[in-house]
Design brief:
Elements: E1 35-38, H1 45-56, H2 65-68, H3 79-87, E2 94-97, E3 111-116, H4 119-131, H5 135-143, H6 159-168, H7 178-185, E4 193-197, H8 198-203, H9 205-216, H10 225-231, H11 234-239, H12 241-244, H13 274-288, H14 290-298
Parallel strand pairs: 1-2, 1-3, 3-4
Helix pairs in contact: 4-6, 13-14
Bound molecules: adenosine-3'-5'-diphosphate (A3P).
Length: about 300
């Protein structure tokens, strides 16, 4: 199919919340080789940012990945600060988003990498992120001018209650999961979209990085692979978390390592009841349909 005959996604709305300001994309001047890394959240975004940085910079150590690869639609710092910073970048840009497709400005020329993860794993990761966040995080999200909607509160003491509320209130206190999953799934076959799953990255990181390199058109010299694989491993990223985690981990008193937490799936199995899991799976099936629900739960081929 030629690019002319494709129906490209069109932005239909803006999203504003304690976290989001989607309007930044309206003023983003795309370059043809831009890379946009997208997830619902807590699905391996930082991991793939690290992978892409390693591919662009051929395994170089000590890159300031978090600074190089901003979360565009996070409303702090504001777009007046963020846009000139990415405009000034001379290297191939790789930025991050957590928006559903219909709140993004979608460029036919940029390349989009979407990473999926089971909602239960997402919430377990999110709980760790939220429960460890410090005053600075609450101040940035709640007190910086421009917040739309209610502030974000402290989480429950119980991760199970946190999960049940997230499920019942469609992503509360963050943002809806199903619409993010549906909207990206619907465009998975576009030529400039690559789908990855957290479970597949865990299973075969080297193979998945090769897929990413092919998709981005980056030729990697054989001698560079060992450095790339080392710098993208969980242990390396945990030990060097201040480089890849937003603001060097300033939002967490325990530091950036708390963000690169366990790197495992299925931690919810010990805590959620069978009925909880059935409720989640029934909701996923209803919201996503069988193929998409299966893929978000397990990964594998998207066909
Ligand atoms: P856990 O909290 O389950 O440990 P995001 O970057 O989208 O916020 O996702 C964060 C999740 O990715 C965290 O999951 C973190 O540990 C995991 N992660 C980051 N780098 C990783 C790596 N190299 N290997 C495995 N998991 C990684």
């Amino acid at each position: 199919m030629s690019n002319q005959s494709i129906e490209w996604p069109v932005k239909t709305r803006e999203l504003h919340s304690h976290h989001f300001d989607s309007t930044i994309w309206n003023d983003f001047a795309f370059r043809d080789d831009d890379v946009v890394i997208s997830t619902y959240a807590k699905s391996g975004t930082t991991w793939v940012q690290q992978i892409v940085s390693q591919l662009i910079f051929a395994g170089t150590e000590d890159l300031e990945v978090a600074e190089m690869s901003p979360w565009m639609d996070l409303r702090v710092p504001p777009k007046e600060v963020k846009l000139p910073a990415v405009e000034a970048q001379r290297h191939r840009r790789f930025v991050k988003t957590h928006l559903p497709v219909d709140a993004l400005v979608f460029s036919p020329k940029a390349k989009y990498i979407y990473i999926g993860r089971d909602g239960r794993d997402v919430v377990w990761s999110l709980y760790n992120h939220h429960a460890n966040a410090n005053q600075l995080w609450y101040q940035a999200l709640n007190d910086t001018p421009g917040r739309v909607g209610p502030p974000i509160d402290k989480p429950h003491d119980s991760v199970r209650q946190y999960f049940l509320e997230w499920l019942e209130k469609d992503g509360y206190p963050f943002w809806p999961y199903w619409e993010n999953a549906q909207s990206w799934w619907a465009i998975r076959d576009l030529p400039n979209v690559l789908f990855l799953h957290f479970a597949d990255l865990k299973k075969d990181m080297a193979g998945e990085i090769r897929r990413i390199a092919d998709f981005l058109g980056i030729a990697v010299e054989e001698k560079t692979w060992p450095a790339i694989l080392r710098h993208c491993s969980f242990d390396y990223m945990k030990a060097n978390a201040t480089k890849s985690v937003p603001l060097g981990g300033a939002f967490w008193d325990a530091g950036a390592e708390v963000f690169i937490h366990k790197g495992q799936n299925g931690r919810w199995r010990e805590i959620l009841t069978e009925a909880d899991c059935q409720a989640y799976e029934a909701r996923a099936l209803h919201e996503l349909g069988p193929d998409c629900a299966r893929w978000f739960a397990e990964g594998g081929p998207t066909v």
